[in-house]
Amino acid sequence: MKINNTTQITGSKVILVPYKEHHVLRYHEWMKSEELQQLTASEPLSLEDEYKMQKSWFEDEDKCTFIILNRLKFQEKSNEIDSMIGDTNLFFDNSKKEKIAEIEIMIAEKIDRGKGCGREATILMLIYGIEKLGVQKYVAKISIENVKSCNMFQKLDFIEISRSNVFKEVTLEKNVDCTWLNRLRSNVKFEMNENYDSRLNCTLNKTKNFE
């Protein structure tokens, strides 16, 4: 989705930046992890396919993604690649009249887990989806084994709708309303810069671009 191409969202612990080509190599290294593949229900991709996927994320109007940075590391180093800790995504079902988005969150760096980074990144994305993209309802589909993520979404007022032992997945939903949005807003610092140039804060990826 191109709408967030120059958007930076800053919280207290994390910063969200658009997923660009220079992030791909680090992201690809993350996704070699069997643990992350299992938690995100993902299949390993070749580096070439990872570049194609990044391009798809940028161009497709039914997807929105941000890379999550550790704010403290970024303030110290001013380098996105060194500060990357995960990503958060929205998938839209454009066949329905109601604006529904499936939300995903991944904290890939183990050292940054259990510190509230995932929760804050999720809330920032929820707010952005509502205020900028017009989301009216959220859906979260989570691996049954990912108990921490299930608990986090439930604490954010998501309700479990179904549980599939076949797909080993829990589905939770939350309808958007003003009261909930205000509660989300009260839980985080939310600053948005829509003129952010990601290229100024990275170590450029020297790996071949497979466009």
Automatic annotation (TrEMBL):
Xref: Gene3D superfamilies: 3.40.630.30
NAD found in the keyword field: no
Pfam families: Acetyltransf_3
Alphabetized GO MF terms: acyltransferase activity
Keywords: Acyltransferase, Transferase
InterPro entries: Acyl_CoA_acyltransferase (IPR016181), GNAT_dom (IPR000182), NAT9-like (IPR039135)
Keyword Nucleotide-binding: no
Domain N-acetyltransferase residues, every copy: 14-158
Parts forming coiled coils: none
Alphabetized PANTHER family for the sequence: ALPHA_BETA-TUBULIN-N-ACETYLTRANSFERASE 9 (PTHR13256:SF16), N-ACETYLTRANSFERASE 9 (PTHR13256)
Family in the record: Belongs to the acetyltransferase family. GNAT subfamily.
Protein name according to UniProt: N-acetyltransferase 9-like protein
Organism this protein belongs to: Trichogramma kaykai
